[in-house]
What does this fold into?
Amino acid sequence: MFMDLTLKLVISFFGLWAIAFITGRKTLSQLTPLDFLSSLVLSEIVGNTLYDDQVKVSHLLFALAIWTALSYLFEKATTRFVKFGYVAEGRVALLIDNGEVNQSLIKKYDIEYKQLLSMLRKQNVFSLQEVKHAVLEIDGSLSVLRKPEYEPPTAQDLGLETQSDSFSITVIDKGELLKMSMRGREVDTEKVMMEMQKQGYHNIKDIAYAEYREDGTLYIIPRKKKNKRMISRNVT
It folds into this structure.
């Protein structure tokens, strides 16, 4: 019995390590809701087999192998197919845009104002008035861009003109044009395509990644293995 239990523990230990290594190691803060649920199910599989004498070592190996294969294939699918990844893992949401709270998204995600304020305080922001952009990430965390006059040290204190940091959103990912990669902000795809062609890209499949900035510029990383370059031009 003890030998069987020891063998199961050893197999479970290395099996869990292999799954974490194969599917991609993440910190707890990077886990999506799907990753969290997958971890719970995996812990149940291992836990229930350790002390059940009717479950043999071969059963444990089979269960770990199947779960590893499913996790690996699903992880690769969400990485390879961008739109499927958005469906499976969700998209980031722009809760505050240019200082205005998107109340429809607040309601959609069941976020109360006191909860939103609590998340802002964790970013050392103590008033909605200080926020220019706030993005709800896939893992549930909040990323915040303050208004320039509230950035420490404040431009008001220094008597300088305020100039906002540029806000950007993903418009092309792995050769696919994304009409709405972020909830609450739609992309003018025609302008993106025009700017892409101006920069010498006539096939969208040649682009690995591109982001459209608030100041009207487009940042492009080519798909082919070349030195990364940035060509920025104002979108007319």
In short: The chain is about 45% helix and 15% strand. The mean pLDDT is 77. The radius of gyration is 23 Å. Strands lie at 92-97, 100-101, 131-136, 142-146, 168-173, 176-177, 182-183, 207-213, 218-222.
